Amino acid sequence: MRWDGQEITAEDDAALPGLRKMAGLVRTVRTPEFAGIVFHEVTARSVLNRVPAASRMPFRWTVNPFRGCSHACVYCYARSTHTYLDMDVGADFDSQIVVKVNAPEVLARDLAKPSWTREQVALGTNTDPYQRAEGRYRLMPGIIGALVASGTPLSVLTKGTLLRRDLPLLGEAAAHVPVSLGISLAVLDADLQHLLEPGTPSPRARLDLVRAIRETGLDCHVMVAPVLPWVTDSREHLDALLAAIAEAGATSASVMAAHLRPGVKDWYLQWLEMHRPALVPEYRRLYGRGSYAPDAYRTWLAERVRPLLRRHGLARGSRLRAPEREPEAPAQAPDAVMQAALF
Ligand code: SF4
């Protein structure tokens, strides 16, 4: 590989304590092309994850080739999963990326089992499958190929414009199995997007990605999520954002309020302290009793957005999520809630 000679072995002191305990750690890698990011390459025994039976997700299986995400969204509710590796929910989540380097091979093996029933598989429910690391590791073509070869429907949700690379492959895949593509875009202003999601492609680049998907002949759903109370929930912003999404040719859109899990909530509140200090007491009140915004807020948001979705022709097929009770089951996969809108 191009960074041969720069590798640090699993025994190196730079390996984080939790990773040393992780079965399958092959090596830890730094490369000048990814300044500030450390890749921990692991060989996984399996990458096909069953969604807990109690989940309300409309899919039962997921594949996540990475843990951690260099897109670094401050509100990301996958952050807490990094603590299982003795890493923190903040900078470690953004920069210490676990890469399941054998994901395509072990997935193909699992899908070949006679017991596999070819249920839909959602890609990128935990972290973004087209984050920057994918440009180097190229795991997604093999994963998509394994799913198609086994006759398994698939969905992808991403903020990553690297998806363009695989559009020809996904277009071919759609001739054989159902393929659902979703782009996550919740902020139209590029300056605000850079503050909230510093590692992501710009809103303009993601809108261009929507266009490219549609030009391939595939449908494209846009997830306007998470909507951040008092930051991105004005009628003017939502109207302009949905207009831009419609203009890019999106097939449909869904809108969802922010979900701030413990740990993630603290990280996001730090961001608020820095950039919108006047909102901190409001957020403590709104999210003081749980991870979800109260039903009243979500109902208010749904009513605000419904006519906008209709006006921009994005309501067909979109689903405004009804208010929910705080879930009892822990750690629903972070982007899984968003993925739900793809089916
Ligand atoms: S919200 Fe999605 S894209 Fe952003 S850091 Fe989390 S997993 Fe990555």
TrEMBL record:
Keyword Protein transport: no
Keyword Lyase recorded: yes
Keywords linked to the UniProt accession: Iron, Iron-sulfur, Lyase, Metal-binding
Pfam families: Radical_SAM (PF04055)
Organism field: Georgenia satyanarayanai
Ranges where the Radical SAM core domain occurs: 55-298
Name of the featured protein: DNA repair photolyase
One MF annotation (Gene Ontology) recorded for this entry: iron-sulfur cluster binding
PROSITE patterns in alphabetical order: RADICAL_SAM
